[in-house]
Amino acid sequence: MASISFRANVGKVRGLQFSQDGKPRFSFSAAESHRRFNKQSQQWEDTGTTWYSITVFGRHAEDLADIIQEGAKQQVVVSGRQETRAYEHNGEQRTSLDVIADHVGIVHRAPQQAQQQGGWNQPQQSQADWGAVPANNAWAGGGQQQGQGNTPPPF
Fold first, then answer.
1. Tens-place pLDDT, residues 82-102
2. pTM above 0.85, yes or no
């Protein structure tokens, strides 16, 4: 098994289940979109999607079952161990990317009002309200980083 970390959109939620000895397991699928910047066209291009089957065990599984919902357009950050499994479906050979997650975090989206008033890189509050965060720190909701447009590429 290889370690893996990625950001993805929640897909089908299989839900919370319990083993015969009562241990909780939460499973869902997630899609990681791949994009790259085309220097010739100066545009972001979609280059494909990777689907993962994610399983979480223990107390974290129970917590996620209350938070992750199918159809809610949620994004998650996942880290864990990946294994590849080959299987056959309708006579066709396929590959499944299974992740046993150690950690799953929910990515909170910017408030709708902030997006409508100028995008991701313009916070509603003054820089002083954000604390000692550099203006070019995109993760903290600060200003725009050099070389990027107003909107970061979706993950």
1. 999 888 889 988 888 999 999
2. no
Structure-token pair, residue 11: 């897909």
Question: What are the tokens at 144?
Answer: 């725009």
* Distance of alpha carbon 98 from alpha carbon 53, whole angstroms: 5
CA 132 to CA 145: how far, in whole Å?
17
C-alpha span between 48 and 116 (Å, rounded): 28
What confidence tens digit (pLDDT) does each residue in 34-44 have?
889 999 999 99
- CA dihedral of residues 113, 115, 118, 122 (deg, nearest 10): 90
Q: What is the rounded CA–CA span in Å between residue 69 and residue 75?
A: 11
The CATH code of domain 2-108 reads 2.40.50.140
Q: Where are the domains of the chain?
A: 2-108, 110-155
